[in-house]
Amino acid sequence: MFFGWSAKVAHEFGAFHAIFNAGGGYGMAAFHSLWLHLPYKKVNSQEFPFPGFRQGDPVHTKQLPEHFQVAVAGDSWCSFSQDMFRDWLESDGILFNTMEEIDHVGMEYFRQQIGCSVWPVGPILSSLGSKARAGDDAEATMHLCMKWLDSKPANSVLYVAFGSQSAPSPSQTIQLAMALEACGKNFIWVMGLCVGVASGSREVNHKDIVKKIDLVMSGSTKGQDMKNKACEVMEMLNNAKNDEKGFKGSSAKAMEDFLYAALSKSYNVVTQNRIAYENFRIIKTQAKQTIAGVNYLASKKWEVNFGVEFQSGFAGMDFMEGLEVNQVELVRSAVAVEGLEQEADR
């Protein structure tokens, strides 16, 4: 996403250009709107809407990551981000690691704001144990977690994570830790380096968190409904990337459309280059024939009516005023053609 400027470079060479976003469309839509407009700097309220994103829910200023709270219009980071998103307008399309069924609002935002093709091709996951993103200990950590999970009963482990772009405040983190300890449930808590950096909009009590955990983990009707919805989303994700005989999911179709668009442009560029090359070969042949005629005249040492005599080459080429215009242009281009002859033969 940070290399939107490369679209202009790609198009200079007639190449297809697409941007891949590793995240979803809704969050990136909010990110895009915030950087382009800095709306929270222009209102007195603590809550504000996203400009250009009418379907997006209003956000509270305390929910903003720190880099937005300290951003100033015109500073280096703000200018870089705004230029980056403006460069997206030059791209042939954008791919998102999401699916149309659950991220339609975010997809529509970019279709309207950027005006290019948008392909939701998710879910795309990093390889398990990828050292490129998680470090050298990633594979060992994965096996340790899997071994621990296999030792626990089915549906007995609570997974807690907040992603890489947000985190609870320090006080919220303490309350969450107290709740996990008090609930008596098995859990895996993924903690990033950003813990304590971003702030939420309100404080919480660990007793309230324990109640929510009990609700989700118990066999109550509401808790089971929440689990069922999560399973429905999982099934939607699996169906979206499914590409079996007789069935093609939405993400599989989107990937197919992306590849078709990329290959179509590449084919058109190759075809245009081939036509231009063939035209060049024809002009080159005609120019060679004209050069031969000029050299023949030069070998005869003819005098032109305005008194210029030439022995060889193209000195005094203006003597051809009596020739047809297209013949004159062919001779004048002959010098360049001769210089490119070796390259053209390749």
TrEMBL record:
<protein>
    <submittedName>
        <fullName>UDP-glycosyltransferase 92A1</fullName>
    </submittedName>
</protein>
